[in-house]
Structures are given as structure tokens and as C-alpha cells.
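Hello,

Our lab assistant flagged a job as stuck in the queue for most of the afternoon. It eventually completed. Since we weren't sure the result was trustworthy after the delay, we are filing this so someone can double-check. Below is the sequence as submitted and the structure that was eventually returned. Let us know if re-running is recommended.
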Amino acid sequence: MRRALVGLVLVACSGQSGTLAISLATAPGSNLLDSAESLKLTLTYPAQTTTATRSSTGFDITIDVPADGNASQLYVDALDATGTLLATGQSPPFALGAEDSTLVVYMAPPLSVGVAPVALASGRDQIAAGSLGYGVILAGGIGAAGALDDVEIYNGFTHALQTGMVLPAARGAMALGIGQNGVVYFFGGTDATGATVGNLWRFDTTVAPNGSYIDDGDQAGVARTGALALAIDSNDDYLVTGTPPGALSGTAGTVTARTDFTALPDQGATVVGSDGVASTIMAGVAGSTTGLVRFRAGAFDTPDGMSIAARTGHTVVALEAGKVAVVCGGSAFPDALVIDAATAAASIVPTVPAVPVSECAAAATSRYVVIAGGSDATGAVSAAVDIYDATTLAYVASTTLVTPRTGASAVALPNGQILFAGGVDAEGNFVETLELFTPDSPE
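-- returned structure --
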């Protein structure tokens, strides 16, 4: 559901102007904003707050701001007649320019999860998902009929799905690497026959109308499925998890086996440490290692005493302040493990998430870590969503998914929301519904 909200008229000193037309979106069928009597709009640049009262025609606000190319962000709060906050939303950062454009702000109660305005074309899990800066790319997956070739991009500025050119062949559980200048790399996965494959494809998202591919062919000897491609520099070079470790070179269009380590856990994240050096932290089960592997300054090491990291059904999330968190993994691992990328020092945060689950969906923004869904010790699919502080992992709040699911993907959007996509529901059906976590407005 969308409702016209406000026009921002951007006027530069030169006399050039543009109109940024803002509309609101809510979950489909929602009447959340029907009782809204006022809207509070906060613009971060130039810093100002404007409040509008509902009229017979709705809300209509025009704000003059300089179209000087600076970045700004918009926060919207909807309040009822008593001043009670009903819903909140925020835009990604956008440039104040002298051209006409549109922006959609998704509104929901703070710290809630709701249905997105659009859904996937069909239900699936094992999606290759990653952030493009302006939104989330969702590629391939396994659905009721097997592997899929769909490519869709959830746009965080419009809350709409953009359809990309289909994959060269159907794939599930691909490794995905986000490269420079709008390039995305897809490697390996499971094909339509259920076989594990080793093809490498380069997808250029900037080519009109819906992208284009370069097929770098079958990479001999390194086929795998369910792996991650973890960036190790800014030159489109990646570590590919699994056995043997893979080295993906985007510029060369190759994936080759690394010989300096035996096996890498399938879950990991890259983060810049407190000393400014990037580290890739991988945790899980990898041959005879302790369960924790770090790649730093071009070399691998295995910090001692980390057998707690040798779990399955978990995920690794990059945190603020140069750390990663290892979360989920079932009843045997009811606690989160936080690892400092620079020192490899580890600490345990008890009871994160609140109920132990495997195959949860987890992602972090600058403010929050959100852990959703998964399967508990009995195999029941969970609807639980736990929200934690992104710096300390201190508990903040809990809510629920609209559709309980396990094996979903979670990726942060540029406006501080988190998108949950795919997975399998409590009846064993593949999920097509997309859901959004909405944060509260910053103070």
C-alpha cells in the first residue's frame, strides 16, 4: 500500500530546481496509517524538522532546500491524535540535486518486522544474496521445481523489485561476490540436475536494461555448493570457502585452489579491525581445525581455544568496531561468540539468540544485529526475531516474523532496514514473501 506524502522542492543558488516526490509504503493491506493525524519529517541536511497535520486531502508538504549535491536523509514519524507514535520510516542517504526523482519510505512500528510491498516471483531457499549499496540482489535458489535462474534486486529507495537478466543456467546455493562498479560474481552451486558445479559468471548490473553476463567457464577442480565468496581486498579478489579453499580473481575471471590451507568453514565475514587491517573470519567445521580460521595480511592462522566455533547451522555477522559474531548452531551452541578481528580475542555472549536455533537468518546494521527464524531442537520452525545492540550485543527487543521460516537470507538495506528473503516455512513450503525489519528513529 502506498500513499502520497510530500514533495521536496530542491532549489539551488543558480536557480536550478528539482522535485523529490516522496511517498509512503506499508505492508500490503495494512491500515496502519489510517489513524495518523500528523507526520513529522526530519531532514538531516540542511537540518530541519517539519510537522504536517492531516487535511481533507491528506498530507501535503513542500520544503525548499539547496540543490547543492550534498547528501541528506529523511526520517518520517506518523502520530495519532494523542501524539502517540504509530509508525516510523527512513530513507537511504540521497543527494540533493537539481532533477526530478521519487523516493519511497516504508513505514512500520519501530523495531518490528512486516511484509514488504513486493514478493519474490516464487518461493525458494538457498538464495545467493548480497548488498549492492542501493539495495539487495537475490539470485537463483532452490524452489519446488528445483534450481531457479531468477535474478531480482530489491531497491531500498523505491521498495520495488527490479528484474535482472536471468542466470545463464539455473543454480542454487551459489557463492556471490560483490565487486567494483556494479559487478557481481556468481560461482558454483547446485544445477538443475542436483549436481555440484564450478561455473564462474560475471554479472554487470549497470548495463541497460537488465544487466549482462560474461561467462568465465567451468573452473576445473574447484566445484562446490553452499560456499561463500569473501572479499579480501578492493581488487575483486575473494576467498571461496570450502575444500580446498578457492581464490576467486574477478579481474582474471578464474577460481583456483589455494594450497596454503586445507579447508575453510562455509560461514564467515570480512571486517576491518580496530588497527585498520582487514581480516576475514571464518567459523564452523573445517577438517581438523579448531573451528575458527582467520585470513589476515595475506596469511591464514587458527587462533587457539576456539572449539566452540566448530558448529554447523550457524552464521557469521560483521559487527561495528572491527568484530564479528558467530550466532546460532542449534541447542549445542546457545551462546554467541564475538571475535576481535585484530587480536583474535574471543568472548562469549550468553543466550544469543534467546532460544537456540539452527539455520537462522542474521544481519547487522550500524545500530542493530537482528537474528530471525531458524529451527529449534525439535525441528520446529521459529518465528522469533531477537534484536541486539550492534556494538555490545546487549539485548534490545524481540518481535516475530510474519511467516516463520528457516534457511532464509538476511541482508541490510542502506536505510537501516534488514530484508529477509526466502527460506522454508513450518509446512515445508518454500517462502516467496519478503519481510522487512524497521528500526526506530535515531535520537
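-- support follow-up --
The delay was a queue issue, not a problem with the job. The result is valid. The chain has a mean pLDDT of 91. The chain has two domains: 2-109, 113-438.
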